[in-house]
């Protein structure tokens, strides 16, 4: 049976307040467990950090994804070794390069995919600004070259990066859906054409929230058609600290991101529950 796991980003647990008050790491992990998240996104380029965090997550019965930011093929090798030792449901790879041409991307993607294949570890390439995948149309050209490329879909970057007008036009919507059709995991925040991260608890942002929920629903439906019956889909709540989070004149955030992360988790899980109910109805009617 296919499953959805909703994770919380440890980066998103940083507060970066003017008063310097931060939650200790052990408290962050307890909060994630007690709030009902299924796991966390963990940076794996810091081995000692990954070792300590995954040990605690495992004690709590939670799982995790491995985050990394390689600039070369070889920089993925130690990450794979860490995952082989510590475990992870997959590696989330932000390609920390900014090639001018598709041709420059080919040896990198082929090398990363070869390492993933040889190790038997799933590697998803994240759509993200200031990375190889920074631009929506450039990434679509990558998909022309690698039609089966497995992405982590973080579509917030494309909405703000290309300044999608409201209402979103048919062409932009079609491009986003093509990204979603290649997405094997999701990172979640809600953007607008001018802001990378909107406060989803604010009523006047509801139109953008509803748009992202519709896109995620489409992405989940697409994944369910492509994935095996026993596959697990992960959705990482990634409401980041400033400068992602908007702040007031004193440097304090305009909303409670931790409460909004829990809100986002509930909305996403409800999407999945609704899809399961729809699938059950179709099976009974068949």
TrEMBL record:
UniProt xrefs under InterPro entries: Xyl_isomerase-like_sf
Gene3D superfamilies in UniProt: Divalent-metal-dependent TIM barrel enzymes
GO molecular function: isomerase activity
Source organism, top-level taxon: Bacteria
Protein name: Xylose isomerase-like TIM barrel
